[in-house]
Design goal:
Number of strands of chain A: 0
CATH topology of the largest domain in chain A: Tetracycline Repressor, domain 2
Organism (chains A, B): Streptomyces malaysiense
Radius of gyration of chain A: 22 Å
CATH superfamily of the largest domain in chain A: Tetracycline Repressor, domain 2
Distance between the termini of chain A: 49 Å
Region (Disordered) (chains A, B): 1-41
DNA-binding region (chains A, B): 63-82
GO molecular function (chains A, B): DNA-binding transcription factor activity; transcription cis-regulatory region binding
Pfam family, one (chains A, B): TetR_N
Oligomer: homodimer
DNA sequence: AGGCGGCGGTTTACGGTATATACAGTTGGT
DNA sequence: ACCAACTGTATATACCGTAAACCGCCGCCT
């Protein structure tokens, strides 16, 4: 389906690497060779190891040599399985997405809120478990691997009972992952080391410039950044669901 | 306020660089020296040049030597003004955020929807003008520069007439930037080169695996990804505003 | 059975990155 | 006038991704 030794980038970045090799990789549509020594690795195993590394030490720590070192092979060995690092990251994302969300029995109408809730929570869990997903999926074209499509499919399915048309369902999906990713980012910020130090510095700074940011100081005095037990994910989700409900109600 | 020659990272990454130097930089609280030659540059000018470079060639193209080359100085010269690259990126973000949004006369209640709309649109414009903002602000703790705080302040101010408490206003703000960033990402994806090529490949792939993604195929047949003239930003914004309205209505 | 060619892994090398360190030239305060 | 502070440079280190050439293994074909 795709030739194995395809090299066409000139030595710089991506420039123009054939998307088809990446797709073949993601979908496992590689024709495996017959002759030659048995490969020690697979793209899957490499991606899994790299993802684990990223979980432990962050995405920046994922380098070809470190990943290869984990297998006891040289860095260049990986290039027999993966066209380059960008493709490896893509595989890492796909790897970490798992088998897709477990959705409740949809069946009845009116339960679409619960279904969407379940989807969103599980998606948020994935992002929480792998904070590097945020940067790995920032920019660049994605949502092409089978597992990512599975998530998309599940979300669209959960929205079918709403009666929204396809375009609207898609836009609600965008709203949902936007929420998930944003909350994940917020939490990643806060779970960082020295978070308390930063908070202290920020509070001090704000106090010194209170008059420049009246609404912010007022909101802070009103408890804006105090933890009040309300999950921002749940709050946002409720807002979105209410918004969707408003469309449905207004149209029928 | 902050000593100028502070170096404590061992040669690796960030590790532990003093946050106070960054804050002093962002807020212009550097005490400027008296003796010695007049500096040719300023952090601001460097950040502006770097941002322009990023606008033209992308964030990856921003390297110390390229930025320095634009001024005709050596790469190391920049380190007299900026502690390191991460701080430079932070400055770039701050630079690009401009003077903050121009908000309409709030005055009357009930116009908060218009105010929030104006805020969101302008924020989206910034992201659209500088796509690298997405990756530059992915992960890492932010929202500490005066300009970013200005945006936050404006959003919170716009939400004051809603009667929501501080924590809720903050959560709505999170919802809004989540929307903006997500839409920006979506648009960046689509305006990429070879976008058509990718779409073709994706459509082909989906057709071959239609049975695995029933909801997705159904949604596509229903026009999910056809451009239908509805701005996804407006759609999401309406959903969020409706959601907020539901909270207000339900509580009073 | 033999060998050839596809393939896995290594080594080497190149150009790029951030940035530590040591230095030279310039300037203002004393 | 001199010294100390400051700016910019040159040099060096340690990484990074990856191109290219190479060697040894192995299954298919003759």
């Amino acid at each position: 389906m795709v030739e194995r030794d395809s090299v066409r980038s000139k030595g710089q970045q991506d420039e123009t690497r054939d998307p088809r090799t990446l797709l073949a990789l993601l979908w496992g549509e590689q024709e495996q060779p017959t002759r030659g020594p048995k490969p020690k690795l697979t793209p899957r195993r490499i991606a899994a190891a790299a993802a684990e590394l990223a979980d432990r030490e962050g995405l920046d720590a994922v380098s070809m040599s470190k990943v290869a070192g984990g297998f006891g092979v040289s860095a260049m060995a990986l290039y027999r399985y993966v066209p380059g690092k960008t493709e490896l990251v893509e595989l890492m994302v796909e790897e970490v997405m798992g088998e897709g969300p477990e959705m409740p029995e949809s069946g009845e109408d009116g339960h679409w809120r619960a279904a969407v809730r379940a989807w969103t929570r599980q998606c948020a869990d994935v992002y929480a478990a792998h904070p590097w997903l945020l940067t790995a999926t920032a920019l660049r074209r994605r949502v092409l691997g089978p597992r990512q499509l599975r998530w998309l499919d599940a979300a669209l399915a959960a929205l079918e009972p709403t009666g929204l048309d396809g375009a609207q369902r898609h836009r609600v999906f965008l709203l949902l992952i936007g929420l998930v990713r944003n909350v994940a980012q917020q939490q990643a910020d806060h779970e960082e080391e020295q978070s308390a130090e930063w908070d202290r510095l920020a509070a001090d700074l704000l106090a010194r410039h209170a008059e420049r940011f009246p609404a912010l100081t007022k909101a802070m005095a009103d408890g804006a950044f105090r933890a009040d037990g309300v999950d921002p994910l749940e709050f946002g989700l409720d807002r979105i669901l209410d918004g969707v409900e408003a469309v449905i109600g207004g149209r029928e």
